[in-house]
Design a protein that fits this description.
Blueprint: E1 4-6, E2 12-16, H1 20-28, E3 36-41, E4 46-55, E5 58-67, H2 69-73, E6 76-83, H3 87-100, E7 102-108, H4 121-124, H5 128-138, E8 146-150, H6 153-157, E9 165-169, E10 188-192, H7 200-208, E11 212-214, H8 223-238
Parallel strand pairs: 1-3, 6-7, 6-10, 7-8, 9-10, 9-11
Antiparallel strand pairs: 2-5, 3-4, 4-5
Helix pairs in contact: 3-5, 3-8
Family: Belongs to the RNA methyltransferase RsmE family.
Keywords: Cytoplasm, Methyltransferase, rRNA processing, S-adenosyl-L-methionine, Transferase
Subcellular location: Cytoplasm
């Protein structure tokens, strides 16, 4: 992690030794009293923290703001809509989505996805927040994606802005390459399917919901790989990458 994020920060703050961030600061960054580290508020300002004292109970530090919220967040106007996959793969998607700076992340059930994924401990235990936080801290941004978990693409579509451009990334035959499209001039959504792909019903639903179909090329990508490629291409077409 290249910035340490907190839910809130005061000029004088305390981080208990039981917090995972304590271990990172002490054992990974190897900081001592008087040292400084980058710190910020989730979806807020960023700045630098200075360690005033530390012991086995925790770290007391002061914090100085350097960037306002909008500048510190570093997010892009991209919504990633991705179907449920195995939790071990979903953890990578969560981390990478936050790292790339997507503003919204919608994880949806799908016709061909395993139904058990929806009830995984990753969601029920709130573990997913850890991976989103880890991605944001790696990218030195305070921006945290607005997150939604939905049972189907029908439910997911209700969360989409009618003013955004919507793209379905699929391996449909003869679909044009997403990378070859024109510049995107407004917020956009990229939809990535599950391990066994979208069903014909879902493809038709996306078309009726105003999605344009594009391809990521002739190779069949894993869902987590397709997410990174699609978001990166969208960022390029938006002119931010």
């Amino acid at each position: 992690m290249n910035i340490v994020l907190f839910e809130n920060l005061d000029a004088d703050s305390f981080l208990p030794a039981s917090d995972f961030r304590y271990g990172h600061i002490i054992h990974v960054l190897r900081l001592h009293e008087g040292d400084s580290f980058s710190a910020g508020i989730v979806n807020g300002a960023s700045g630098h923290a200075k360690i005033e004292s530390l012991d086995e109970s925790g770290i007391r530090f002061s914090w100085t703001q350097e960037k306002e919220g909008d500048e510190a967040r570093g997010q892009v106007p991209v919504t990633l809509l991705v179907a449920q996959v195995r939790p071990i793969c979903m953890k990578r998607i969560l981390r990478d989505a936050a790292m790339l700076g997507v503003s919204r992340l919608i994880v949806s059930g799908a016709d061909t996805a395993e139904k058990s994924y929806q009830a995984a401990g990753l969601w029920s235990d709130g573990e997913y927040m850890k991976y989103l936080l880890d991605g944001a801290m790696q990218a030195v941004g305070t921006g945290f994606p607005e997150f939604f978990l939905t049972p189907s693409v029908n439910h997911a579509a209700r969360l989409l802005s009618p003013h955004a451009a919507h793209f379905l990334l699929d391996n449909t035959e003869n679909a044009p390459l997403f990378s070859a499209g024109d510049a995107i001039t407004k917020a956009c959504t990229v939809a990535i399917g599950p391990e066994r792909g979208w069903s014909d019903r879902e493809r038709q639903f996306f078309l009726e919901s105003g999605f344009s179909v594009f391809s990521l090329g002739g190779r069949v990508l894993r869902t987590e790989t397709a997410c990174v490629v699609a978001v990166a291409m969208a960022m390029h077409r938006l002119g931010v990458l």
